[in-house]
Amino acid sequence: MSGLRWHLGACGERRPSVCMQPACELHTRRCADGSGCVRLTLLCDGVWDCPDGSDEEACGVSAASINAQDSAHRCGFSAQTANGYFRFPTSLHEYPPFSRCVWTIQTVPLSFINITITNLDIESQYDFLSVYKGRQSTEDLVQTFTGTLNSSVSVTIPDWLATITFKADATISGKGFIVLWKTGEVFNILVNGQTGKFIKIIERPAQNWFHKRSRLMDSELRFHSSKFSKH
Predict the structure, then answer these.
(1) Which of 71, 177, 208, 229 could form a disulfide with 120 if both were Cys (CB 3.0 to 4.6 A apart)?
(2) CATH 2.60.120.290 intervals, the chain
(3) What Cα–Cα distance (Å) separates residue 34 from each residue in 24, 77, 229?
(4) Distance between CA atoms of residues 1 and 177, nearest Å
(5) What H or E segment, with its residue span, contains residue 46?
(6) Average pLDDT, the chain
(7) Which residue has the higher pLDDT, 21 or 39?
(8) Is the N-terminal amide bond of 22 cis, ω within 30° of 0?
(9) How far apart are alpha carbons 74 and 51 in whole angstroms?
(10) 35: closest CA among 145, 132, 146?
């Protein structure tokens, strides 16, 4: 027992009292920043599959080359606001090839994040915009987009932390995309004697109450002024 020691590292999943990070699967390796695991076949292939590029380290690539790649094609930020938006690229030009971007959105506990993607124009089947619940990991992937969308699409993240990533290859580019987000509340409500967990989206002057999770029902509750209806 004397040889055992405590180790503190990045946490992939929140726990009530301690953080526990799931082990990487066989034939995979964890990224140095703890953000996820990548297959061994993806190591040293010239493409950054880890957000920090650690899967391409110690591969005979010079530090100068890595730094140049990072400054030219890396992007993203970490936001701690209830509402906001960003455009990529920020200019009207097409996004640069080999882009590797990570945006992290953190709101407040007991809330959810509604993400809307508009003006999506990226190379189909080769460039990907992905939305994750919590930190970036395979098991938390909510949806991936590629190609062109003629209308906006919304994704609801049932958590107060979301990660959005964009990966592009080295050839064809597009005009990019716009991402907007807003925060709502998660609350408990008693319906017909049963307690369920619900998501609340406020829209003025009416208020919509969307059901999130309940073992006995799958419904949408709407409050319009003093009138009440259940769908």
Answers:
(1) 177
(2) 46-184
(3) 10, 17, 46
(4) 54
(5) none
(6) 74
(7) 39
(8) no
(9) 9
(10) 132
Can you give the pTM of this predicted structure? Answer: 0.55
- Which tops the pLDDT comparison, 224 or 154? 154
Two structure tokens written together for 116: 């809307």
Query: In what helix (H) or strand (E) does residue 71 lie, and over which residues does it extend?
Result: helix 63-73
Q: What is the CATH number of domain 46-184?
A: 2.60.120.290
Output the CA–CA distances (angstroms, integers) from residue 51 to 21, 134, 170, in the order listed.
Answer: 18, 15, 17
Tens of pLDDT, residue by residue over 116-150, are 999 999 999 999 999 999 887 777 899 999 999 99
What lies within 8 Å, CB to CB, of 44 at 6+ separation is 55, 56, 59, 60
- Token duo for residue 229: 């209806």
**What single DSSP character describes residue 148?**
B
Residues facing residue 18 across a β-bridge: none
**Taking the CA atoms of the chain, what radius of gyration do you get in angstroms?**
21
